[in-house]
C-alpha cells in the first residue's frame, strides 16, 4: 500500500490481508475513516472500564512500544497510573525518522483509532489531558486532526481534553523528554534523565508518553482483548506492526505485518526486491545495516523501517550522507554529540568520497567508541550504531575505498532520501 | 563507614572544563574535544575522597557521585 491517501482503488480490487488490523478499514474501503464510519465499525471506545482493566489487558497482550524503544506499554501505563496526582498523556506522532511514514499514514487513515487509544490510556492513567504532538512541517495533517478532535468533542465521546500541538520537526525533537520540555514552554530538545517523564513530565505531573501506533493498538486491545492481540505475531513479540518499506523494492510504502516477521518476509509484502540487494537498512537512520543474504530468522527490529539497498549502490556513500544529516541534527547540548557525531560524519565522507589513508579507519573506530552513553539522549548512540554496522557490512568496500579511492557508484544518486542537513537555528527549537 | 559509589556525568551540563580528569585520573580521561571519558563508573572506598573532590570542583555541577546500585535500587522502588 502506498502512503499517498489520495490514491483511489475500486472496491472490487481490494483484498483485506490477514495481517491488517490497524489498516483493516483502509483495505476494506480504500479511504480514510471518518468518525461515523469509525463508530459504525468499532463502536465507542470502552472508556468506562479502562481505569481498572486496561493496563492489565495491555500487559497481558504483551504490547511493546512501536516508536522504536520497544518498552512494555502495559507496565509503563501501570507505573504512571500508580503515581500520585493527576497524570498527563502524550501521543507522540512526531515521526522524525526520515525513512518512516507509518505514523503519518496511520494518523491520516485511522485518526480515530489513535485518538481512542490516547483517550483510553488517559482514563487508565488517571489523566484529564491528552497532548497529541505532530510535526509543524505536516500542518495540513495537524488541521485535519484538530477537526477530528472537534468532531469527537461535539459528539461528546471523550471524557478528557485532547489538544493537538505542532512542534518543530528536528530529528531529536521526537524524543519523549523533548516533547515534555516543549509542552512545558521550553525548546524541543531532549533533557537528561532522570527524571523520566513517567516520574515528572508535563507540569511536573506523571506523564505517559506513547507512540501513536502503540495507542492505536491499545484501542483494539481494549475492545478485543489480549488473547485476540496475541493471535498475530510470535509469543515473544505479539501483534502486528506497521513498517515503511523503501529502496529497491516493487511497491514502496507502509505495510502492516506480524510483529517479529523476518526481514525477507516483510520485504515480500511490498512485492520483494527489484534488483539484487547488497544490504538492508533496518530501523532507519537509527538502525543497522543487515548483510544480504539475510539471516532467515533475523526479525525486523527498530522503528518499523526497512530500506533495500541494491548491489549497484555504495553503502558507504549512503551511510556518509545519513551521518551528515544526523550530525546536523544534534541538539548541541552535549559535547560528545555536538563534536563527535559531525567528526564521525566527516570521517565517513572522506571514506566514501575522498582519498582516505589507512589511519582513517583506526580514527573512526576510536571515535565510534566515544559516542555511546555520552549524551542526555541516545542520539550519539544511534549514529554510532549506524556507522559501526556500515563498517562491518560493507567491510570489503571499506578496503577498496581505502586502497583505490571512491568506487564507481559513490557519486550516484542516493537510495536513501536524506533531508536537508542544515543545523536548526536557535529559535527553530521552539 | 565508606560505601562503594558510582560516578555519572550530565553531558548536557558539561562544558569540558576538564578539572575532573585532573583530580581523578584513575577514573576519568578526556576525549579529543576535551570532554570527560568515564573509564569505570565504580568508585572503590579508597578513591571516594578523590572522587568527592572532583565532584566539588566541577564548575557546572555535571559530575555526580551516587551510592552503589544496590542501595539505589532499594530507594527507587516504585511507589504504589
TrEMBL record, chain A:
The keyword Iron-sulfur applies. Pfam families: Complex1_51K, NADH_4Fe-4S, SLBB. GO terms for molecular function: 4 iron, 4 sulfur cluster binding; metal ion binding. Residues 58-219 form the NADH-ubiquinone oxidoreductase 51kDa subunit FMN-binding domain. SUPFAM superfamilies: Nqo1 FMN-binding domain-like (SSF142019), Nqo1 middle domain-like (SSF142984), Nqo1C-terminal domain-like (SSF140490). PANTHER family: NADH-QUINONE OXIDOREDUCTASE SUBUNIT F. Belongs to the complex I 51 kDa subunit family. This is Fe-S, FMN containing oxidoreductase. It comes from Actinacidiphila bryophytorum.
From TrEMBL, chain B:
It comes from Actinacidiphila bryophytorum. This is Fe-S, FMN containing oxidoreductase. It comes from the Bacteria.
